Amino acid sequence: MALIRVITPLCSMSDEMAKDTMNEVNCLSDIQFSFDNVVLGVGPASIENSFDEAYTAPLVAIKAMEAEQDGCQAVIIDCMGDPGMHAAREAVSIPVIGPGECAMHMAATLGHQFSCVSILDSVRPIFFDHARIYGIGHKLASVRTIGVGVTELEKYGAEQINAMLLEQSLKCIQEDHADSIILGCTGFVGVAEWLQQELEKQGFAVPVINPLPTAALQAIAMIRGKIRHSKRAYKKPNLQKYEGVKFPSPDTTKR
Amino acid sequence: MALIRVITPLCSMSDEMAKDTMNEVNCLSDIQFSFDNVVLGVGPASIENSFDEAYTAPLVAIKAMEAEQDGCQAVIIDCMGDPGMHAAREAVSIPVIGPGECAMHMAATLGHQFSCVSILDSVRPIFFDHARIYGIGHKLASVRTIGVGVTELEKYGAEQINAMLLEQSLKCIQEDHADSIILGCTGFVGVAEWLQQELEKQGFAVPVINPLPTAALQAIAMIRGKIRHSKRAYKKPNLQKYEGVKFPSPDTTKR
Amino acid sequence: MALIRVITPLCSMSDEMAKDTMNEVNCLSDIQFSFDNVVLGVGPASIENSFDEAYTAPLVAIKAMEAEQDGCQAVIIDCMGDPGMHAAREAVSIPVIGPGECAMHMAATLGHQFSCVSILDSVRPIFFDHARIYGIGHKLASVRTIGVGVTELEKYGAEQINAMLLEQSLKCIQEDHADSIILGCTGFVGVAEWLQQELEKQGFAVPVINPLPTAALQAIAMIRGKIRHSKRAYKKPNLQKYEGVKFPSPDTTKR
Amino acid sequence: MALIRVITPLCSMSDEMAKDTMNEVNCLSDIQFSFDNVVLGVGPASIENSFDEAYTAPLVAIKAMEAEQDGCQAVIIDCMGDPGMHAAREAVSIPVIGPGECAMHMAATLGHQFSCVSILDSVRPIFFDHARIYGIGHKLASVRTIGVGVTELEKYGAEQINAMLLEQSLKCIQEDHADSIILGCTGFVGVAEWLQQELEKQGFAVPVINPLPTAALQAIAMIRGKIRHSKRAYKKPNLQKYEGVKFPSPDTTKR
Amino acid sequence: MALIRVITPLCSMSDEMAKDTMNEVNCLSDIQFSFDNVVLGVGPASIENSFDEAYTAPLVAIKAMEAEQDGCQAVIIDCMGDPGMHAAREAVSIPVIGPGECAMHMAATLGHQFSCVSILDSVRPIFFDHARIYGIGHKLASVRTIGVGVTELEKYGAEQINAMLLEQSLKCIQEDHADSIILGCTGFVGVAEWLQQELEKQGFAVPVINPLPTAALQAIAMIRGKIRHSKRAYKKPNLQKYEGVKFPSPDTTKR
Amino acid sequence: MALIRVITPLCSMSDEMAKDTMNEVNCLSDIQFSFDNVVLGVGPASIENSFDEAYTAPLVAIKAMEAEQDGCQAVIIDCMGDPGMHAAREAVSIPVIGPGECAMHMAATLGHQFSCVSILDSVRPIFFDHARIYGIGHKLASVRTIGVGVTELEKYGAEQINAMLLEQSLKCIQEDHADSIILGCTGFVGVAEWLQQELEKQGFAVPVINPLPTAALQAIAMIRGKIRHSKRAYKKPNLQKYEGVKFPSPDTTKR
């Protein structure tokens, strides 16, 4: 059985949130795969801008190196901003899945244009810049946000957040011509199915992409298909030239 | 167990070719899924240009309708030109996977730029036009071809064809900066693994995407993740307005 | 005198509609050219989505082959979706004009940006995808629709349809910065002149492109200038490899 | 009979060149149209860079105003750089055709990609910039040049120039994937037909666009179809605010 | 001390306006540089469309030649439309700065997207076309205008104009996602600072680019860094081939 | 006198290299500005891929915070990959200049297209991705590399490295149509002037942009013009939500 590690790029995560997060990937019912989860131990409580992304990126890459040494067959970065994705791909040889990249490419195949509904306006240019790098072309119609930060989600409560996400999704469909929706934050757990049904009820047959399980499906597909990232694109970095840093050692006895 | 149907958009296929084709998807070892295969019965012996694509497109869409009635949970179009993909998505509610679209989006996530190596120059503009529609942006670096039509592949023999594919792949890597390669024809069965190893031997750590199994993995992922194409994007066509045509009837007793 | 054939990609057309359609091209007053008209005999009563386009595409290509054998010097596809245009260009050596492509390139030279006003929302992504393939760049500002299908046009009556087209055209101009308008359906006969005058009256000096006569002018220009499509781009398909199909024979005695 | 004026944006033109130029448009055999020709009287002997274009642009616009007052129904700017095209469209209400714009849009409809073969490297960025403004998208594959200025063409002689143009055209086809060619200078008179035949002989069925007659066909099409440039795009300039300049007066008795 | 010449591409300028204009560049406090100012003497009282741009372009290029002969070390074209910029760069070897180009590239580095607020709608397509040529990519979010021509600015008075500019800037920020603003006319003197403060007060920390001083800073940077435009891109025009024109002579004794 | 800090994103730098680096900015002769230099103390000896960039990014951002507290009026990141640029702009209110971004925008104004000549192929996709985010459009013609890593530069010696840079620059000009060159590594100290002269000698009047002094000129221009990055684009991160991290405190007594 293959192990896939979910790296949550936050200092810590509540037990409840961790359970909800793992539920999203465990319900995929592929008995040949299992998932585990780690957090960073230090760093921010949420990822909402370039600073947070930059801070967590090297830590994610290092966690990916540990996962490879632990025998994991793929890692998933549990954040739509995909912090450290390119660095981690250079650092390891197992697949490194970013839910942002993965959800955008899935959404691109589901219809003509998609939108992201996310937390704060500060992620809007980040998503568009990522779409530019990922080669998403004209497929990203818009990014709309509910104006609530990750750490405030609980304050509002699920019901109110869901209503806000529905409101923004309807704008994406009716004003921006989106015909698919990406949930733009992996912290929106347990929302995708409800949102898709609610849109359906209002007459909009629009799939809602849940990024974390979509990333899990991509990890499974890559492992099963023996597909790996291009090491010509993501060449191994030279860690010997680093001073004052201790990286996870590849010749560890743990393996 | 879910059934996925591979629709080969040709008038017929030799038993050997059919066996080889099905081998490519059966080796994915996901025991919850099985595959079967149909051909069109009429039409061209190969797909090499817009005329061939146009001719087979409605026939593929009708085969997709039959597949849905037969209880299949997804269909795969067995051709890199994805003939009839949009029409079939409108005609049915199950996922319709085009290997061209699917391989391009997979390749886009494996590195910075990819190339396709294919049969004849006549497919080059078709692939680029499809990339434009699929939203592939800058990721498609080049399309290079071996100058041999599908029906001539046997004449040359596997060894010579493989050598030609290797030669073109090397040009894609060295001259066009591709760091991943898509095999640009589903008729290149049993080549991908060899080609990837050969490139590796020559110092190029470049993944080679095999389009049909990649499409199968996407079909599995969509079924498992309960992901469907957007019916807002691909609205049901009104078949009542057709005259002189008999479409597979949705209220058949076969279901 | 050169004969140009208008291929209407529908199963049939009322006498009145046929007369109105031919009026649009006959009033161009170039006495060196005449036009005739054929329908498909089978197929849909209207073209409103990818399925309809796919279904009619091969039939249009075959009608183009017949036209070439009948000595026509060009064919025009009487539909803004240009079904079968690329296939037909491969099948024959005479010019094959798609009003969608032709109107977009004409509109691109008339101002800075143009919009299409058309029937149903389902054509919007098709027009944008075509614009991408045709190389229209930034020139297509928007596609707006009246929400009425082709077969319902009569139900509403000309006056109401005209008012809807005017309303959408004004939005294209005022909200999307269009400075030219394309009538996005060849079924809008006898509207262009009225619409242009009405816009003028409201202070908007905006040309309204009528796609069918524009296509006729392009056909005339190409014949007169001895300009043909590139047979390097649109190579002759190999019809020998088709099974179970009878194509119009090029060595017919009709010629 | 409608009169169309060809404005050659040079200080002067030899009788022979003028005759050759007018031959290109007179052979179109549309007896309802005639052409005349004017030069600027002052200015450069050739247009080869932005300075030459800028210098002649206002003079072309003024000549267009005179043409409108003389009762011409369209003007054609006899230069692939289209100097003064936008200014002239603002200044008058009759169609103003630039052969560069017109040939690019025609070429865009003839195949998948086209190239221009022209005089000096200095026109290369100008053509690409114009393609960007004209909305030509990906259709312009390349600009290749023979390295001979307009005023030197005679020195080399037709035979040598033709051979150079053939050589560059072959490179466009074989290296840049062009399937149509635009002659990138209106000074290449009497070459297009020969070049197209020569390419055909070498196995390349590639149309060669002759820009001046293509512009003439566009002028004829626009007049016959009563199509005008958008005055919303090209608003009348306010000539009252000019000091020290005498423009052709619109209320002249000549009209 | 290096002299930089500001060329105002108008027939004339009031003393007050000239003073205000020079204030904008003189307050940069770089004591190693000084500025002077010339007008064209003939031509339009304002630049509002392609005709005005075309008319003034060659005159600006000639003024740049005079400036070079006068020993100026750079010239600045005092108009956001950058009339004659490319022609002038060909004509001289000293830096030629267009405030439109310069402000767009500065704004592109200040945030994710910028907008221009300008005078009349007729400049909108000009700014977008320039952005296309300048390579500004997705960075130009929108152009919004106050609907007041340059020569009418005085009629409304500074207070009313400022309020209009504020209103449009707010729309750029709130509706078009701009996070920087370019003042889209060099005639808006003394507004930038006020506008930036006003936006700040309303909660929008958005820089307002004042094009003329930004151009002056670019001129200073280029002189200090010994950076010149590429003479390979902007080759010297051949003035010998001009007839009936007297250009400033480079071998003047003035130098 | 304003202080500008150069942050070299390496663990350390030799005295000689530090001196050479500071020489590049000190020779700009603007007596109102002075420069100092810091290194990171930990981390890589060179920046050659995404991992190195990711590792240094947060450290650069923290050094920028320290610089702001030390009263610096701008910071420059001494690396063409601009590591941490966006994060640092969020963290501070003083200008943060990335030489990569800055050199590209300067080069974009010097001609029609520019190329970068740099160290290793691994930076090629990074530069293109950055160009996409920076909005550089079509202006970046190519990235060519000498195949020598930063830490190996010394091994080859200046003469050989210079010859390699010249060879690649010539290819950029002759094969990729570049008319300006950016030195694609801030480690190429003292090369730009020589390279520009050498190209000139060989007949190519092509400016060579030296990124670090260009960044210094931009920093000076922004300070002098009181231009700041958009805090609406680069919002202050919430450092309170970080655990296990000690950031430079803004209320330090050092200020």
UniProtKB/TrEMBL annotation, chains A, B, C, D, E, F:
Coiled-coil residue spans: none
UniProt similarity note: Belongs to the HyuE racemase family.
UniProt cross-references to InterPro entries, sorted A to Z: Asp/Glu/hydantoin_racemase, Asp/Glu_race, Hydantoin_racemase-like, Iso_Racemase_Enz_sf
UniProt-listed SUPFAM superfamilies: Aspartate/glutamate racemase
Transmembrane segments: none
Designated name of the protein: Aspartate/glutamate racemase family protein
Domain of life of the source: Bacteria
Entry GO MF terms: amino-acid racemase activity
